[in-house]
Amino acid sequence: xxxxxxxxxxxxxxxxAVKIAKAVVESRLAACVNILNNIRSVYxxxxxxxxxxEVLLIVKTRRALFESLVESVKGLHSxxxxxxxxxxxxxxxGDYLKWLKEETS
Length: 105
Hints:
By secondary structure, the chain is an alpha+beta fold. It has a single domain, classed as Alpha-Beta Plaits. It is 32% helix and 40% strand. It is built from 3 helices and 4 strands, in the order E-H-E-E-H-E-H. The protein has helices at 14-26, 66-76, 94-103, and strands at 4-11, 32-45, 48-62, 84-88. The chain has a 4-stranded antiparallel beta sheet with strand order 2-3-1-4. Helix 1 (14-26) packs across helix 2. The protein starts with a strand and ends with a helix. The model has no long low-confidence stretch (mean pLDDT 96).
């Protein structure tokens, strides 16, 4: 199993995204968070098809921190069920992965 993961989190707007990003980096639950504005999400929620503009956070962290990251995000997030999904980071430059590990230790 890979040590490093990339976590995708959607937020309703840039303000909330920045609040979440700063909190998880400051607490060392993530080494870096990229914020992509103006994504369009189409999804089913409570029996209805929704079509909303959102912001996507791309979080780089270690797998061992995922549960703590989830709890932190849930405490800061305005959604009842925020999207928080992890993908394995298969490869990366040695220098970057070393930095990622140092910043989340």
